[in-house]
Amino acid sequence: MRWGNGGYGRLGHREQKDEFTPRRVDVFTKHNTLPPTTVISAGSVSSACTVGQMYIWGKIKLTGDNWMYPKPLIDLIGWNICCMDSGNMHYFVGDDTLHVVPLKGYDSHHITEEHLGSKIISRFVLLCAFEGIPYLLCALGDGYLLNFLLNTSIGKLTDRKKMSLGKKLRMLKLAARDVGALREPKDKLEK
Length: 191
What we know:
WD40/YVTN_repeat-like_dom_sf; 48% strand; disordered C terminus; Methylamine Dehydrogenase, Chain H; RCC1/BLIP-II; small GTPase binding; Reg_chr_condens; 1 helix
């Protein structure tokens, strides 16, 4: 879904008119409908979703035209994307490794990979900034959380730290001053 009046809020509808109520992006209404397992992410000036591959639209480059409707990213075809989050000009895509994807246009390519381990699947990624320093948090399927510093000028992840949260995570959420982690209910963990 997409809505907005002015600026980038209208992108995804192939037309430049104000939208005052949410509606589906036309590309995802007929043959390319979004299943319940779709991963969706919205940055400050662009949006992305997965329907077998990653589609992106909005302001993709610092200069040039915006993408008015979703287009697939060729370099990510075949990836099994299970989580994604957006920054200002970066997307973070997770499967069995964590990939940093810069938004440089239609030929976007990942510029770094962080291997999380062969048996650990990233369940959620969250980009956040504390005191002006950008961090990438990655919740793993085994109850651990990885914390990276992000160098936004070159797109590199540094200072990897691993923390145990004790239980499997359901969701990471950014609040005004902190990050909240929602854990699995106790009855589901005991099964």
